[in-house]
Structure formats: C-alpha cells, structure tokens
Amino acid sequence: MSTIDLKSGYHQINVHPADRDKTAFVYPFGTFRFKIMPFGLRKAPATFQRLMDMFCRNLPAMAYLDDIIVSSPTFDQHLLDMETAFLKLKDYKLLANRSCHFACSRVRYLGFWITSREIEVDPNKVSAVQKIPPPRNVKRVQSFLQTCS
C-alpha cells in the first residue's frame, strides 16, 4: 500500500477565467480575484472530491479530499499501479508532499492503521478520550457527551 498526500489541496485547482470575478475581494490596495481555488468557496470540497474521484478512476485507489491510498494485491502489481498513479499526477498537474509513504505493509490513513488484513483505530487519535475519567455527575456526563460529538 502507498499513501499520497497532495500539496496545498484546493490551491492546485485553477478557477476558470469566466468565474474569477465571483471570487473577488476588496483590499485597501485594490480589488483582487483568485486564479486558484481558495478554501472557503461553497462548492470547493465537492469540486476537489470530484477531481479526486476522476483521478482514482481505473486505479486501485481511494481518495478523501487530498489524501490518496493505493492498494494492490502483489508488490509487482503495486509498482505498476504506482507508475500509473505518478503518470496521472503529472497529467492532472497535481503535486504531492514529502510525507507520502510508498510500498508499505501498514499505513496510517485518515486516523486509522490499515494493513492487508485489518483496519485499526490509530491509538494516538483516541488516547485523549480514553484518558477522560468516568463522569460522576450530570454536568460531567453532559461535558463528556459534548466532547464526543
């Protein structure tokens, strides 16, 4: 398995020239428009996820926003799949961070440890909740429930 963490997420998607006026904002030095998709646009997450879904098409991969995982049944197949993934990254003009992990038997992905046989919750993600002492009154129960939601 390999994980690919894309650099700058939404900022790798260009805003169509006809839509740039919709991203305009006023600053003391003038009015400016975005050429790349900024965070905060209403449809930005859906647009980026749609791009990732197109990227993963015909590839044994899944993506959640800018996190991609590629999983193959054998090492030789994985090398071929990664070559395809790298070519697609180039075609889509997407850049990856250095924090990618390649050809691992166990990877951390979206708060889980994933192997070819199982998926486990990352202990680092739940340790804070596990350390909370048991609530002893109504106020503590409400506080705990608020923490968990």
Automatic annotation (TrEMBL):
Please give the InterPro entries that the UniProt record associates with this protein: DNA/RNA_pol_sf (IPR043502), Retrovirus_Pol_polyprotein (IPR050951), Rev_trsase/Diguanyl_cyclase (IPR043128), RT_dom (IPR000477)
| Superkingdom to which the source organism belongs | Eukaryota
User: Which one GO biological process term can you cite for this protein?
Assistant: DNA biosynthetic process
- What is the official name of this protein in its record? Transposon Ty3-G Gag-Pol polyprotein
Offer one Pfam family short name for this entry.
RVT_1
Residue ranges constituting the Reverse transcriptase domain according to the UniProt record: 2-114
User: Gene3D superfamilies from the xrefs?
Assistant: 3.30.70.270, HIV Type 1 Reverse Transcriptase, subunit A, domain 1 (3.10.10.10)
